[in-house]
Amino acid sequence: MTMVIARPRALWPWLVLWLVLALGAALVQLGCKTHPPPIVAPPTLRTVGVSVTSGATPVDGATVTLDDLGAPHVGTTNADGFALLTLVPATLSASHLTITASGYQPYSQHVDLDPGHITLAATLTVIPPDPPRQVRGQLTAQYRALTYPDGSRFIWRGITAFGLNAMVSSGHEAEAVAWMTAARASGFSVVRVLVMLPQGWFTWDADFTPDDGLAALPRTLARAREADLYVHVTVLANTAAIPDADFASYIERAGVICATTDNCAVVEAANEPYHASQADPVHDPVHLAAWVARVPAPIPTALGTPANDGDGATMAAGSTITIHLDRGRDRWNRVRRVRELETTSAATGRYVIDSEPMGADETEQPGRRDTDPAAFFGQGALSRIFAVGSTFHCEACLQTVPLGPVQRACAEAFLDGTRIVPDDVTLTFQNAGWSASPVKAFRVGDPALVPNTAVRAYSGLSSTHNVLALVGVAGDPGVEWHGGWRPAGMLTDRDALQIWTLRHEEAQ
Length: 508
Prior knowledge:
By secondary structure, this protein is α/β, with parallel strands linked by helices.
């Protein structure tokens, strides 16, 4: 018989397990006692100040926003133009600042911020008021001015738009409207259009007949009025192609159409009536005078330009006179001939308009096109000193298409020149050496740009604004002042043209 002896069960695995569990529990208790959970401090707040001005004036009530990663912080400026914004430091590395305020253009700027208290400064630009309406009723010719119904003077800032009426006639009215809208936005007040151009050039139709033009004229006038523009209506052009036509009836019909609106600046009988492109009857000022007499009052009228710009008095049968100034001579002797308009105006008691002077183009063409904005600034400035009308002429203006960059620069300079004094200021012209002139004498250089001379020195005086134009100036022309007058400051210094403001010592 075999005896089986049972072995005792091993206890050591259980002992090991017990020791592991006990040790783990002790470590857990020890960790809880020696490493408590961290305490998170509340964020420290920082501030950013924003100072808002317009010029030197604080802007009260402006809304100021700093927006960092979509977290906007908004404040409002006080009477001192100051707003204090409270920010979290983490948002202070970079931000976008925007400011809005009633009457000011919105301000927007990316800013880099230091992690401390800083102050930002912003300058707001005032939203300019809408320009006053230009078409404020039918203009009338009153002695040497064109006036609104309330008697205030109209400032002529014309631009050639020969193809405009043809554009409307040939189904391009949208382009015509866009062109006029741009002209008005630039600051022009008058567009000069040709009613007709039979078998002619620079229009949108190869044969823009009188009937075509007269049929389109009411729509052209209406679209111009919507653009807040007056229209210089030139009726007869290239009439040599229709020598037996009834020219008087064309002018009368155009005048009757103009009488249905209030934005006809002038009805001019013919473009350069002396020109070979015109029929023989158009050459005669007696005929022209009889024809414009059919235009209903009080619409201003003009016969057309004389062959020589000094013969404007021969065309004085209309209530205004149009002249095309000579395009010859050197640049500054040509520009100073705006003076001829004033001479004609004084002799005839008529408002005189330089309706087709030297034009602008992208490249210079001696005797025909110029590229210097300073010359066109001078044209505009002298028209204000002499209180006459002036029209900007250019190559793109013939077809009435958008102006190239050089022509745009010249147009802008011309308009700037017409603004040397506010529109409600009428200057009285004084030539150098006249008893009431601020300039007693100066060194005259003729031709232009002789060292230390000027071609001409023209002053314009009023009770509030006084200016001197030095035309064709090179160096120091040695101006001798007269009657207590002295220069007060430089308005512009362009090429060889300087416009000075003047002060009178007795008025100080």
